[in-house]
Every structure is written in structure tokens, then in C-alpha cells.
Design brief:
Length: 312
């Protein structure tokens, strides 16, 4: 019913007490202000100002509308500030997605640094597999997602930008008392008789399958366990072995040994996925992720590790 220009005019006239002063402040002519006020009064259904010998004052109806106009203009000003903050990268809400093992060390470290730099940005974390995160981004539900091409690649999407963050080595997780856990590294060919614990999509090539093919064998029938806590439980119980990303080494419990597979080790690419027109805050967070990679990788088992214990 009332446009914002009319409400700003009402506020200026009420504050200055004069059509002439309001006109000078807003850059209008005095006659233009008179016409605009008359139009506003017609919309309001009656006089908003009492015309005095010197200036004007609000009528009871004018006082009521002026009170509401102040509330509306204040909310609009705050909205303008917050929108500027969103586009400037320092306020608003940032919806962040990540796959499970990225939330072990990489995302928390980046998020801690980001919040110190941009405390007024509300971050909303979401965890899901990489494919689900990309679908959610395509639907407009995420501003940034940490994704990887493990276990069987990522779909191409020309509406999403992928910023590579790390080439993450996949380590083999063995029971702590496994004979091969005593060595510095494990030759993948020595694992040809092991049961592999994995949850790759059926009928699709996987990094494990490709690595085993390079080593000259096909992996033995896998046990399909999706959650990492379940995988670790099966390994600790001696029911199989599994691949663990270096970035997740911090979370491996006692009783499990992590070893490099040397030249046969698969590597996954960890990336930050962004919409083609990302928020500045999302672009900034991608930078914090890149800076957090070395620290997050600090929990990985080095190639010479031979203690048979999990990294905490």
C-alpha cells in the first residue's frame, strides 16, 4: 500500500517539521513534496500533517503511520546491511556440506579459522556422501561442499566449479596384530587373499578395484559396510581390511594399524565444490580449507610408520 519512498518522505517531513526542509534534504522541489504528501494522504484515507503557519506537525493518523514507517525503514536498513554482508563475505548464512571423513579434521580446522575471521557469518554444516552433496548444491541447498572422487569418481556438472584441495593417499587399515602390520609398508599383492570392507556402488569401477588390477588380481568378495565406525569395528575384529583416507587417520581407533601401499596406493582428489556464482563467503571458506590441508594431513600415518597402533 505504501512504497518505501513515500515512507522515507513521511519520516523526513515529520523529523524536519517542514515540507521545504524535507525537500532540500531529499533533493526534491517543495512543490513535489507537497504533491507526494497529498498522494500519501489519499492512500492513508485522511490528513497526516496539520499545516501550520510555520511548518507542519503530525496528526494522530500521521503519528500512527510514522511509527510503523520507522519500524519498516529500520528493518529495510538492517536487511540492506545484511545483504551487503552476504555479498561482501562477512555476514549472513553459509551452508556447508562435507563427506564424513572430511569432517574428521579438514572441515573443523577450516571452520575454526573461518569463524575467527568472520564471526558474523552463521555456518550451517551438513554431512552426506559426495554425490548427495552435489545434488543438493544443484538444487540450491548448499553454498559450498567438500567432495571427493572416492570410491568411483564424481559426475560432471557444468553448473558446479570444483577447486582441488588435496591428493589424499588411501592407506590400508589392518588389525593391529596382523602379520603385515609389523612392516613399514604393505605390498598390495600380499593382500590378495584378504576380505575387503567397502561400500562402493554396485557394477561400477572403484579405486580399490583399479589398484588391485594394477597389482595383478581382483579384490576378494567385499563386505559392504558404509559407516566408518562399522568398518573400523570389522577391521579390529579381524574380519577384513579396508582403505582409509589419510585425512581420516585422526579418527582411527586403537587396535588398528594404518600402512601405506607404496606405489600401488590409490589417491583420491578432495575438492571444494562451488556454484558458478558463489557467495564471497563460500569462496573465502574454500581458501581456509586449502590452508587447513597440511594440518589435517598431520594425522596421517607416514610411509615409515611401523608401530602397529592407530593414529589418534
Amino acid at each position: 500500500m505504501f512504497d518505501t519512498d513515500a515512507l522515507r518522505l513521511l519520516e523526513a517531513v515529520a523529523r524536519t517539521g517542514s515540507f521545504t526542509a524535507a525537500a532540500a534534504e531529499l533533493g526534491y522541489t517543495q512543490s513535489a513534496v507537497s504533491r507526494r504528501v497529498a498522494a500519501l494522504e489519499r492512500r492513508a484515507g485522511g490528513p497526516l500533517f496539520a499545516r501550520l503557519a510555520r511548518g507542519v506537525r503530525l496528526t494522530p493518523a500521521g503519528e500512527l503511520l510514522h511509527r510503523h514507517a520507522g519500524i519498516v525503514l529500520d528493518h529495510l536498513a538492517r536487511a540492506s546491511d545484511e545483504l551487503a554482508g552476504i555479498h561482501g563475505g562477512y555476514r549472513g548464512r553459509l551452508r556447508l556440506g562435507a563427506f564424513a571423513t572430511a569432517n574428521v579434521a579438514l572441515v573443523p580446522r577450516a571452520l575454526r579459522a573461518f569463524r575467527r575471521e568472520f564471526p558474523e557469518v552463521e555456518t550451517v554444516p551438513v554431512e552426506a556422501p559426495s554425490g548427495g552433496l552435489l545434488r543438493r548444491m544443484r538444487e540450491g541447498g548448499l553454498d559450498l561442499a567438500v567432495v571427493s572422487d572416492y570410491p568411483s569418481g564424481l559426475p560432471y556438472d557444468d553448473g558446479i566449479e570444483l577447486v582441488a584441495l588435496a591428493e589424499d593417499e588411501l592407506l590400508v587399515a589392518l588389525p593391529g596384530d596382523h602379520p603385515l602390520a609389523a612392516g613399514d609398508r604393505v605390498d598390495l599383492r600380499d593382500l590378495r587373499e584378504e576380505t575387503w570392507i567397502e561400500a562402493a556402488p554396485p557394477e561400477r569401477r572403484t579405486m580399490l578395484g583399479d589398484a588391485c588390477a594394477r597389482a595383478g588380481f581382483a579384490p576378494r568378495t567385499t563386505v559392504r559396510i558404509a559407516e566408518w565406525t562399522g568398518k573400523f569395528g570389522f577391521v579390529a575384529a579381524g574380519l577384513g581390511v579396508t582403505l582409509v583416507p589419510s585425512l581420516a587417520a585422526w579418527a582411527v581407533p586403537e587396535g588398528i594399524a594404518l600402512r601405506s601401499l607404496g606405489g600401488f596406493a590409490p589417491r583420491r582428489t578432495v575438492s571444494a565444490a562451488l556454484p558458478r556464482a558463489p557467495l564471497p563467503a563460500a569462496r573465502a571458506f574454500a581458501g581456509f580449507l586449502a590452508e587447513a590441508v597440511p594440518e589435517a594431513e598431520g594425522g596421517a600415518a607416514p610411509s615409515g610408520a611401523a608401530d602397529g597402533q592407530a593414529r589418534q
